[in-house]
Structures are given as structure tokens and as C-alpha cells.
TrEMBL record:
UniProt Pumilio repeat ranges: 237-273, 284-326, 400-439
Lineage: Eukaryota, Fungi, Dikarya, Basidiomycota, Agaricomycotina
Gene Ontology terms: biological process: post-transcriptional regulation of gene expression
Source organism of this protein record: Ceratobasidium theobromae
PANTHER family tied to this protein: MEIOTIC COILED-COIL PROTEIN 2, RNA BINDING PROTEIN PUMILIO-RELATED
Protein's name according to its UniProt entry: Meiotic coiled-coil protein 2
InterPro entries: ARM-like (IPR011989), ARM-type_fold (IPR016024), PUM-HD (IPR033133), Pumilio_RNA-bd_rpt (IPR001313)
GO cellular component terms given for this protein: cytoplasm
Length: 546
């Protein structure tokens, strides 16, 4: 007995129209019955009605076996059909099934599901296109289709170009560029002398992605290049994005390398010119009178580039200094980044005649030096001025500090300026500072910052400062009731000052202070700090100290 054979036309498994069934719980109809039922269900009028409901006008005329004109589609259906990504059943070669009685045949012999309305329409369209003698291209839904067309227009293909898609195509180079920014690079291979690295791409990687390895690579290539021709493409790429590189965390190091050897003065001048104007407007409307040096100096990364530019030739130095003088000097002097530029300017040595930089600075800062000294960053600026400027250049600053010394001595940052003046100032300035401090010793001795200033004045002022302080302590206080030493001995900071001063006194000075204390022993012993001062005097009186 021969086993029945079944022709199995398999569809695409991912089709959403494929019905779900259980292959082993469904009765197995004969293949001939299935085929007869499918052909019986395919009615021409019914298919035409379904096509019209879908917006498709069936092509009249030739028979089904050899159609010459495919169905005409409405514009909306054309776009939807071409833009659809759904999978369509396509005919596949028929294969013979295993005998039904064998176990393998039961696994492979699966019934063909009954086609629904949509699948019947699609099956009819496939037969129409398959029976055509040759595909026609004159009825394609979109003219000028740039890609190849499959044998059946219903096969899935990319969506056609539209107005919105053109913008997507225009973004393809940008997407490729973004992809190149993140691709790994073999920098070791590109370090070979025969290589031609894409320096512009590396600069873009630094600006957009803060690529540290790309910055190190550019620095190494600049250092290894022995000729101007070898450095030109690197400098060109850096100058093209000069300001962005200068303000970048890793890019500023590559720019600094352009301002060092072996780069020639001409190449350094090109980099310095970027500070004067924005590169995009250099060739058009460049404001050469007001550049971006101040903006760079106040940037945490750009300030390093400006400081490096001050190590170049004098024309570049003059350009930087002139730009710095055009801004608000007080603001830049107090800025924590620009202040380093100013300290660098103060340390510069100029060829004769030196530019009158600080004449302009003194005029702009007149009456504001004391306020600058009370600022955290300004305090360092004033101290640098004391150390590096000529006396004629810093005279106005010193005068304003001495006039406000009582206010600065009790300030957190100003006290450092006063101590610096006492330690490194001239004899005249130091004596004037000690005199002003002794006059306000009653106030300063009660302040934590002021007591440090008084101690610095005693140590750096010598015997004249000690004598002046001892004489002032033996004089009456502002109240006039008792000597000033008694008021100071009752306080913690004042007793600390007296304890430091007593071993430094001569015997005559010690006796004068002892006479001032003898009449207030009871008052002093009433406090812990006063009791210590009484004990020190008693020790010295017994000859153990003097």
C-alpha cells in the first residue's frame, strides 16, 4: 500500500497572518482535499471586491495565466505598501513529505492552514506577478527609484525617498563623523614617520570628546617634527579650533606645545593671534582692539595658555598685557585664574625701555589696593607686587596698605599682607608699620589674627620694636584706670603676647612693667591668664630669668 504524498508550501514563519495550530492534535486531511478547497475558495469576483476594499484596482483584460499589466495601486496604498516592513508569503519549491505512517513523517507532515482573506489576495497577486513574462518598470509607484527592483513589487524593500528622508540622508556624513569620533585608534602605528594621521579628526575628538590620548599624540608629533613642513598640518588643525582647544581640559596642553620649542616664532605668532579674535571672524569682521585674552585668562584651562604665551617673544607679551589692561583690573586681579597671569606679568623682565604697565595699573587701582589685599586672591597679588616690583611701581600700594593697617591686621587675608610687609619691607616701611600697629595694640591683641601681626612686628622689628611695645604697655589704657598691660594680661591672647615679650626685655624695661603690675596683683590672680603673668614676674624677680 503506497503512502500518500503531500505537497507542502511553507510560508514565512514570522508572518503575523499565520494561524496558530497544533500539528499533532489536528486531523490530517488529504492533500488533494486541501488543494481543492483552496482553489474552490478563490473566486475572481470576491478577490476583486477585496482588492477594491484595500484601495487596489485590479487590472482587467488578459487572463490569469499571462497578465500583462499589474494591478493599479492608489497613491496611499503605494506608499503604505512600499513603506511596510511586514513579511509576505512567497512561493517556495514543493518537496515530498515523508510517509505518514513513520514517526518522522508525523513530525514533518503538517497540514496546510486555511488561508484567510488577506492571504488569498496576496497569493493571487503573487501568481499574477509570477505568471508575467517579464517585469515592467513603467508602472512602478515611485519614479526614479535609485535602487534595484526585485521581481515582485510586493517583496519587502527600503522605503522611498521623501522630503523628510532627504534630511536623514543629509545626516549620514554627520553620523559617520560621530562614529569616527568614537572609534578606537592605533596611535602607536600613527607615530611612524611615514604615516599621515588625520590631525583634524584628532582635534575634533579632543574638542568634542576630551580625548586625552589624541592630545598626547599631537604633543608627541609636534615634539618629534623637525621641520616647519612637518608641523604645518598639526598647527593648522589646532589653529582651526584654537579657542575651543585652549579652553579644553586636554586641548590646552597641545596648544601650549605650539608655544614651545621646536615651534618657530612664526608658528607661535599664529597661535597667539587666535587670542586676539575669534577664528571664524578673523577673515571677516575682526575686532583687533578687543580680543579674548581676558576670557582665556579667567578660564581654568585657558589661563595656562596665556601664561605660556608670556614666555614667548616680547611682541606676544605686549599683546597679552595690553589685552589684560583693557578689562576691569580689580575683577581680573581678584579672579583665581587670571591672578596667576598677573603674577606672571609682575615677574617678567623687559628690555629697555620697559613698558609703563604699572603706571596704568596704579591709576586704575587708586584707592582700591586695601580692598584687594583683603581678598583671598588679591592678597597674593599684593604680596607678589611687594616682592617683584620696583619701589616706584609699588609705592602707591604700600601707602594704601599702611593707611589701612589696623583694618588689614585683623582680616583673614589682609593680615598676611601686613606680615609680608613687616618681614620683607624696607626699614622705613617696617618702622612705619610697627608704629601704626603699636597705636592699635589694645585692639589687635584681642584678635586671633591681630596677635599674629603684633608678634611678627616684635620679631622682625628688632630692639626698637620691643622698646616701643614695652613703653606702650606701661602707659594707661583708654579707660585711664590702669596700665594697658593689666587689661591685656586678663585676656588669653594678651597674656600670650606678654609671655613672649618678657624674655626679650631689658632690665629697665622689665622693671617699668613690673611696677605697673604690682598694684593690680589681686585683680590679676582672679583670672587664670592673669595668674600666669604674676607668676612669670615673680620668677623673674627672684633672678631666675634675668
Amino acid at each position: 500500500m503506497s503512502s500518500p504524498h503531500h505537497s507542502w508550501s511553507s510560508g514565512t514563519n514570522s508572518s503575523i497572518w499565520a494561524p496558530h495550530f497544533r500539528p499533532f492534535d489536528t486531523p490530517w486531511p488529504a492533500p488533494s482535499e486541501v488543494t481543492q478547497r483552496i482553489h474552490a475558495d478563490v473566486d475572481t469576483e470576491q478577490i476583486s471586491m477585496m482588492l477594491r476594499n484595500l484601495g487596489i484596482t485590479p487590472s482587467p483584460g488578459p487572463s490569469e495565466s499571462a497578465p500583462t499589466t499589474p494591478p493599479a495601486l492608489s497613491p496611499s496604498t503605494q506608499i503604505l505598501s512600499l513603506g511596510s516592513s511586514s513579511t509576505v508569503h512567497t512561493p517556495t519549491p514543493t518537496r515530498m513529505a515523508e510517509p505518514f505512517e513513520t514517526p518522522k513523517g508525523r513530525l514533518l507532515h503538517m497540514p496546510v492552514p486555511t488561508l484567510n482573506a488577506h492571504e488569498r489576495v496576496v497569493s493571487w497577486m503573487q501568481r499574477q506577478s509570477t505568471a508575467s513574462p517579464a517585469p515592467r518598470a513603467d508602472w512602478l509607484p515611485c519614479g526614479g527609484w535609485p535602487r534595484g527592483v526585485a521581481g515582485s513589487m510586493w517583496a519587502p524593500r527600503p522605503a522611498p525617498f521623501s522630503g523628510r528622508d532627504v534630511s536623514n540622508v543629509a545626516r549620514v556624513p554627520q553620523e559617520r563623523t560621530e562614529q569616527a569620533l568614537n572609534e578606537p585608534v592605533n596611535f602607536l602605528r600613527l607615530l611612524q614617520p611615514s604615516s599621515q594621521p588625520p590631525y583634524g579628526l584628532f582635534v575634533t575628538r579632543i574638542v568634542k570628546n576630551s580625548d586625552q590620548q589624541a592630545s598626547i599624540f599631537l604633543q608627541q608629533k609636534l615634539k618629534a617634527a623637525n621641520s616647519e613642513e612637518g608641523r604645518r598640518p598639526i598647527v593648522d588643525a589646532i589653529v582651526e579650533h584654537g579657542f575651543e582647544m585652549m579652553t579644553n581640559r586636554f586641548g590646552n596642553w597641545a596648544v601650549q606645545r605650539c608655544l614651545e620649542a621646536p615651534c618657530m616664532p612664526k608658528e607661535r605668532k599664529r597661535v597667539a593671534d587666535v587670542m586676539q579674535c575669534v577664528l571664524s571672524t578673523c577673515l571677516a569682521v575682526a575686532d583687533w582692539n578687543r580680543g579674548r585674552v581676558i576670557e582665556l585668562a579667567t578660564n581654568c584651562y585657558g589661563t595656562h595658555v596665556v601664561q605660556k604665551a608670556l614666555d614667548c617673544a616680547e611682541p606676544i607679551r605686549i599683546m597679552v598685557v595690553s589685552e589684560m589692561l583693557q578689562g576691569d583690573l580689580a575683577a581680573t586681579l581678584m579672579n583665581k585664574h587670571a591672578s596667576h597671569v598677573w603674577t606672571k606679568i609682575m615677574e617678567l623682565s623687559w628690555s629697555d625701555p620697559a613698558p609703563p604697565i604699572f603706571d596704568y595699573v596704579n591709576r586704575a587701582m587708586q584707592g582700591r589696593w586695601a580692598d584687594l589685599a583683603r581678598h583671598e586672591t588679591g592678597s597674593l597679588i599684593v604680596q607678589h607686587a611687594f616682592e617683584n616690583l620696583e619701589h616706584s611701581d609699588k609705592g602707591d600700594c604700600v601707602r594704601e596698605v599702611l593707611d589701612s593697617i589696623d583694618r588689614l591686621a585683623t582680616d583673614q587675608w589682609g593680615s598676611w599682607v601686613v606680615q609680608h610687609l613687616l618681614e620683607h619691607g624696607t626699614e622705613v616701611d617696617r618702622a612705619e608699620a610697627v608704629k601704626a600697629l603699636v597705636e592699635h595694640i589694645s585692639t589687635l591683641a584681642a584678635d586671633p589674627q591681630g596677635i599674629k601681626v603684633i608678634e611678627k612686628a616684635i620679631k622682625s622689628g628688632g630692639h626698637s620694636a620691643v622698646e616701643r611695645v614695652a613703653r606702650r604697655l606701661s602707659e594707661p589704657a583708654k579707660s585711664g584706670r590702669r596700665p594697658l598691660i593689666v587689661d591685656l594680661a586678663l585676656g588669653a591672647t594678651g597674656s600670650q603676647l606678654i609671655s613672649m615679650l618678657l624674655p626679650m626685655l631689658a632690665k629697665s624695661q622689665w622693671l617699668a612693667l613690673h611696677d605697673s603690675v604690682k598694684g593690680h596683683i589681686v585683680t590679676l590672680k582672679g583670672s587664670k591668664s592673669g595668674s600666669r603673668i604674676v607668676w612669670l614676674f615673680e620668677r623673674m624677680d627672684r633672678g631666675k630669668v634675668i
